[in-house]
Design brief:
This protein has 15 helices and 31 strands. By secondary structure, it is of the alpha+beta class. The strands form six sheets. Strands 1, 4, 5, 6, 7, 8, 9, 10 and 11 form a nine-stranded mixed sheet that branches. Strands 12, 13, 14, 15, 16, 17, 25, 26 and 29 form a nine-stranded mixed sheet that branches. The protein has a five-stranded mixed sheet with strand order 2-3-19-24-18, covered by helices on one side. α2 packs antiparallel against α4, α10 runs antiparallel to α11 and α14 packs antiparallel against α15. The longest helix has 17 residues. The structure holds guanosine-5'-triphosphate, sulfopyruvate (SPV) and manganese (II) ion (MN). The site of sulfopyruvate has 9 residues, from α6 and α7.
Amino acid sequence: MTKNQKVLTWLDEMVKLTQPDEVIWIDGSDEQKKALENEACATGEMIALNSEKLPGCFLHRTATNDVARVENKTFICTTKEEDAGPSNNWMSPAEAYDKVGKLYEGSMKGRKMYVVPFIMGPAKSEFSKVGVELTDSIYVVLNMLIMTRVGKIALEEIGDDGDFTKCLHARKDLNDDEKYILHFPEDNTIWSINSGYGGNVLLGKKCLALRIASYLGKNEGWMAEHMLILGLENPKGEVKYISAAFPSACGKTNLAMLIPPTEYKGYKVWTVGDDIAWLRVKEDGRLWAVNPEAGFFGVAPGTSEKTNPNALHTTMSNTIFTNVALKDDKTVWWEGLDKNPDDHMIDWKGNDWYKGSEEKAAHPNSRFTAPAKQCPCISKDWENPEGVPISAMVFGGRRAKTAPLVYQAFDWNHGVFVGATMASETTAAATGAVGVVRRDPMAMRPFVGYNMGDYFAHWIEMGKKVKNQPKIFHVNWFRLDDEGNFMWPGFGDNLRVLEWIIKRCDGEVDAKETAIGYLPEAKDINVNGLDLSEDTLNELLTVDKEIWKGELDGIKEFFATFGDKLPKELSDELNGLEERLNK
Ligand code: GTP
Ligand code: SPV
Ligand code: MN
């Protein structure tokens, strides 16, 4: 398949280590994909779904202890511990290769190894990077075929002498105590063992496109971010691009595919990406972005004809569902799809489920893997090798209190501070407690492949290189009232906030200057057609100085963990905020 000696030598080594019975190259062809689907259905690894209602779709159930990313088993393996930084688990490369190398020994005996060459990003783009994933899981191969550009196209991109990220995955026996997701940024290598779930095993996604890519970006002068990219078209047909970073399961896929409210005639949102953005400065001084992925690995629960019809329609064919419920007619269901579950279904664990049961039918982190090109609102520029120019960058999280609906940072450095001090309630996307507020800078806490202090410095440096800087904003769709209800309708109505953001970028609307940034005047958020009281809107747009003074302590404590790696620009911003709050 290739003459690239670096690929062949490494493959040889890994075959010796893992000892598969057979080595199979994935070429990206339809025939091979079909054969693998059949094989996975024959062994029960996947279930073929209703071929009329969901053509080309499959269901996969993971082990019940293997349903989300495992942050406590995820390591950055750099020579110096300091290079991993305080927000990452660290292991020395020597220890990691030795300890986990032993676990890989003979791990593919009696199994097949699939060789999956893939490109992250459009072919022949300066943004793009190539990887090769070795895996013993057909489920991983089939997901990679949707999420990345696989096979001959990738080998062409690597060429006879090109470099690539070396990705090794073995499912082994899913033993929790021997589960490891290891990153060796200095060796451009990823090792994953004892998991079969999403972000732990689709190594092009979080492992390469964020952890390894963030490290490459720091060294090569570009950025890898946990951001959706969307194009907002106005009635004049002008399109402005926005990128937005929200933590896992905090609304990126939904915002990226938003359908404008009915009174917004002539407006349209175009999806470029729903999870990851790679950004570069170009000669015009603007920041340009590409989506390195080719598919969506989206959260199923809560996706419905009402909340996100575009996502739902994307998943109507050629989609792999993971850990959702199976209906008797061989279609799928999850909480929030509709209010009307069937009387009988098979739940995500494979057990009978009856209407009225206390148990969830689908796992809260159940997902769909669907080809981006099937999305009804996919941007015509989603595979443009040049990327799209970004006008606004948005940070946001899940905050029941504190953060207002939207505010704008004073300038780039203040925007970096706003991103760096983001906090959000944890979700089911990672194992561990749900609903705990934690600092999640730029929604990248689990995904920065080096010292987070250096990552902040990189953001500051990039600001100096970007002459036409995007404006930076913060949003919060998740404010709760005293009864625990969402105060803002969210979903499609988030366009009302995007409209304000674009108007600010174009200098078309004034704002109130507050201690934390520029806030909209209530009259400038269009609430026509919404059932939202004036009081509620005002409350959504208030900054409670006392609550924010409380925030200061949390930020100081968090910043202190970075020691002298914290850029002075950020401690200056913190002092500025404190002064403004005390004025
Ligand atoms: P990852 O794929 O984990 O990175 O998640 P994501 O950021 O793409 O989140 P996604 O859009 O899948 O949304 C996660 C959950 O938040 C879903 O259950 C949504 O229904 C819910 N959600 C998304 N947008 C909104 C909103 O504007 N308001 C409210 N209340 N919920 C929302
Ligand atoms: C996330 O958790 O942010 C995801 C899903 O997008 S996973 O690929 O599992 O990381
Ligand atoms: Mn994500």
